[in-house]
Design goal:
With about 100 residues, the protein is an alpha+beta fold. It is built from three helices and four strands. Bound molecules: the ligand C[C@H](O)[C@H](O)[C@H]1CNC2=NC(N)=NC(=O)C2=N1. Belongs to the pterin-4-alpha-carbinolamine dehydratase family.
């Protein structure tokens, strides 16, 4: 069962993400990060890889793409806030971003 992160659990899960550039969204219990790529092909390739994980985990990002940038917002709609699922997907997105693009 997905639960909204409690005050006690969110620190340890979110602090490492803030260190990689994730931020809280103002006025919402959600995290955001803008990923910048070399070009559109790299951006869309990364989105495709991330989408496969999102679908596998049934946890989907709010995101938008303009040329070589992808802005991601992660939150858990079912609990109206951040859950461990968001931290897991954020870590995966960071990991995929660090991998060489084809
Ligand atoms: C019915 C289905 O499992 C839910 O709607 C899932 C799908 N993907 C989801 N993604 C996100 N980010 N939050 C959710 O609450 C969510 N719920």
């Amino acid at each position: 069962m997905t639960e909204k992160l409690s005050d006690a659990t969110r620190g340890p899960l979110l602090e490492p993400l803030f260190a990689t550039g994730w931020e809280m969204v103002e006025g919402r219990d959600a995290i955001t990060k803008t990923f910048k790529f070399k070009n559109f092909a790299d951006a869309f390739g990364w989105m495709t890889r991330a989408a496969i994980w999102a679908e596998k985990w049934n946890h989907h990002p709010e995101w938008s793409n303009v040329y070589n940038r992808v802005t991601v917002v992660l939150t858990t709609h079912d609990v109206d806030g951040i859950s461990a699922q968001d931290a897991k997907l954020a870590r995966k997105m960071d990991g995929l971003f660090g991998e060489p693009q084809e």
